[in-house]
Structures are given as C-alpha cells and as structure tokens.
Amino acid sequence: WSCQLAFAPEVFAQVVPWLALNRQGLVVFLHPDTGDDLLDHTEHAIWMGAMRPLDLTGF
C-alpha cells in the first residue's frame, strides 16, 4: 500500500511538481533526511493529499 522513493536535493524542483500533477489521487508524503527523524517526519514534512496519522513511537 506504499512505496518509498528517494531523490537528491538537486532534483527537488523537478520531482515535486511532477508528483503533485501525477499522483492521481494517491497521498504523497515527502520529508528530508537530515538525521533528525522525528523533525523530518513532522515539522519538515510535506503532504500532498489527505494527511494520514503517523506512528511516531519509533522516534
């Protein structure tokens, strides 16, 4: 029900608009990988579509 994609910061400006225009109703959750997993998954996250609850107990 989900998949993970990783891309370099250099292509952010190309990938994010493509995802926004081609997600076809899917929920897309984007976050950076700064080393602070809790902040990356909360404060630094971007949602496309409906926000979903996250299980943050592992952080």
Q: How would you describe what is shown here?
A:
The radius of gyration is 12 Å and the shape is globular. The protein has helices at 12-22, 37-41; strands at 28-30, 46-48. The protein has two helices and two strands. By secondary structure, the chain is an alpha+beta fold. It has a domain at 9-48. The longest helix has 11 residues, at 12-22. The protein has a two-stranded antiparallel sheet. The relative contact order is 0.18.
Distance between the termini: 22 Å
Mean pLDDT: 96
Helix/strand/pairing category: alpha+beta
Largest sheet: 2 strands, antiparallel
Radius of gyration: 12 Å
- How many β-strands, per DSSP? 2
- Name the shape in a single word: globular
Low-confidence stretches: none
Helicity, as a percent range = 25-40%
Beta-strand content estimate: 5-15%
Number of helices: 2
Sheet with most strands: strand arrangement:
1-2
Q: State the order of secondary-structure elements, H for helix, E for strand.
A: HEHE
